[in-house]
Amino acid sequence: MSDVRRESIKRYVDENGDIQFRELEVLFPDVSSMTIRRDLAYLEEKGAIVRTWGGVKAVFRSDPASENLFSLRMTENVHAKKTIAQKALPYVETGRSILIDSGTTTMFLARMLPNQNFSIVTTAPNIAMEIIKNTSPTVTLVGGQLSRNNLTVSGANSINFIKNINIDIAIIAASGYSQKNGFTIGNFDEAELKKAIIKKAGKIIMLMDLSKMDRNMPYTFALLKEVDVLVCDRKPADDVLCLAEKLGVAII
Question: Could you tell me if residue 19 is left (phi over 0), alpha (psi between -120 and 50 degrees) or otherwise beta?
Answer without folding.
Answer: beta
